[in-house]
Amino acid sequence: MATVSTLALGLSCAPANTYQAPPPAEVTVSTPIQKSVKTYLEYQGETRAVETVDLRARVKGFLVERKFEPGAIVEKDQLLFVIDEKPFQVRVQEAEAQVAAAESTLKKAESSKAREVAKAQLALDQASLLLAKIEETRQRSLASRNAASQQDIDRAEANQKKSTAQVEADRASLDQALADYDVNILTAKAAVANAQAMLDNARIDLSYCRVTSPIRGRITRNLVDVGNLVGDGQATILASIIAEDPIYAYMSVSEADLLRFRRMVADGSRPDFRKDVVPVELGMSDEKGFPHAGRIDYADPNVDPATGTIQARGVFPNSDRRIVPGA
After folding, report:
1. What does the alpha-carbon distance between residue 76 and residue 221 come to, in Å, rounded to a whole number?
2. How far is residue 135 from each of residues 71, 86, 132, 157, 188, measured CA to CA in Å?
3. Model pTM above 0.70
4. What pLDDT score was predicted for residue 11?
5. What is the DSSP string of 191-258?
6. Within 13 Å and on the Cβ side, how many CA atoms surround 244?
7. For 228-257, what is each residue's pLDDT tens digit?
8. Residue 74 to residue 55: CA distance in whole angstroms
9. Gap between the Cα atoms of 173 and 195, Å rounded
10. Where are the beta strands (DSSP E) in 57-169?
11. Burial 244-257 (b: 16+ CB within 10 A, else e)
């Protein structure tokens, strides 16, 4: 009890509590401003290479060389594969010989003297005909004076007819020689053209033995090993090349967004990507935000009725190859 009393006495001696007003609240203020704010829309997309080329064997033969490292960057026109060239080199040599033979035939046809020979023969026989006519006239004159027999006249007439027939034959031979000359020239020229075409084709086939890169890009592994027969009945795929810089990103845009964009283009609040640059940004799944800047360069002209969307495409620089095709 004493303890309790002492405690009560001590409490009764403490000063009374008084109300203390709280301090005024701190308020942060800022000056309001007015500015344009860009509206962003986000879409899931898929990246694709700008160019993808399959290297194919265009002639039949054994693969003898591979001149690249799988996965490496290859340059345009870089030699990548070699198919055995020997059979095709032989075909080129054969075709060159055929061209030479055809040109020789043409030269011979152009230098032919058959027309000159036919003309000379005609002139010779025309002279003989003239002599035969003179002889017949002379015999008839002699016969009128009883200085020639009927037999001489008959012989002169026969010679004249023979000479006339020979001249007619010569004229026909000359006409044939002239026609043959033109035909032979045309035939020889056609043979030269045909031989040249075969030579060109043989050279093209020979060039196909060396497979070069049509673009700059990253090459896949070789799909056929050296020593295998390629191009046997089909254009064998040897490898593929993928151009990674720049790179495309495709996205599906809803019909509602499409109509909205077109209204904005019509009222001037949004540029038309066909005339001006419409920026687009891209972020990979492991990146924060959208660090890759590009531009819209294509949109489908019609909506897919099955999905109610159109496909749009952005193009992005990719010199560091951070953006991977197919992501």
Report:
1. 17
2. 100, 75, 5, 9, 47
3. no
4. 40
5. HHHHHHHHHHHHHHHHHTTEEE-SS-EEE---SS-TT-EE-SSS--EEEEEEEEEEEEEEEEEEHHHH
6. 21
7. 999 877 778 999 999 988 999 999 988 888
8. 13
9. 32
10. 61-66, 73-74, 79-83
11. bbbbbbebbbeeee
CB 118 within 8 A of CB 177: yes
Strands (E) in the chain, as ranges, are 45-56, 61-66, 73-74, 79-83, 210-212, 217-219, 229-230, 237-254, 279-282, 292-299, 309-316
Side-chain-side CA neighbours of 181 within 13 Å: the count stands at: 15
Instruction: Give me the chain's average pLDDT, please.
Output: 84
Best CA proximity match to 106, nearest among 191, 199, 200: 191
pLDDT tens, residue by residue, 97-137 = 999 999 998 888 877 777 777 777 778 777 777 877 887 78
Hey, what are 134's tokens?
A: 């003179």
Bridge pairing between strands 229-230 and 61-66: antiparallel
Residue that is written with structure tokens 């066909």 in the block:
274
Burial environment of residue 105 by CB neighbours within 10 A (0 to 12, 13 to 18, 19 or more): middle
State how far the Cα of 61 lies from the Cα of 231, in Å rounded to an integer.
7
DSSP state of 134: H
Dihedral sign (CA 110, 113, 118, 122)? positive
Cβ neighbours of 5 (radius 10 Å): 9
pLDDT > 60? residue 315:
yes
